[in-house]
Give the backbone structure.
Amino acid sequence: MALVQREIQETTVANGNAVETTQRINDPVAADDHRKDVAARVVWFITGVLLSLLALRFLFALLGANPANGFANFIYTVTTPFVAPFFGLFRYDFTAGVSRFETFTLVAMAIYALIGYAIAKALTLTRR
């Protein structure tokens, strides 16, 4: 188990003179908190990447991006497994020409944001 070294600075006054002392201590609790913070940041990073991809999918569908385009096709292909559980969640469909308002993508974004928040909170739950 790695220990984190902390410095504690104390200032005392003796006979009108201020005396500063620095003490270094090893803190296993701070090391544990650091590991939890790193794990939570990794979860938030993954969640942020997923939400960004889903936002691009929503924007591309809304603006009627050509699915034959390489980049749009990549975004649609990568995000389909994440939005597939939400297909058909609502019976109405908002389309205007080639533009689509994908409510299932917005729902997927909200659900994955909540899941990311719950996992990050669970990792740092016992933090002091």
User: Anything to note?
Assistant: The CA atoms of residues 64 and 99 lie 4 Å apart. The two ends are 18 Å apart (CA to CA). The longest strand covers residues 4-14.
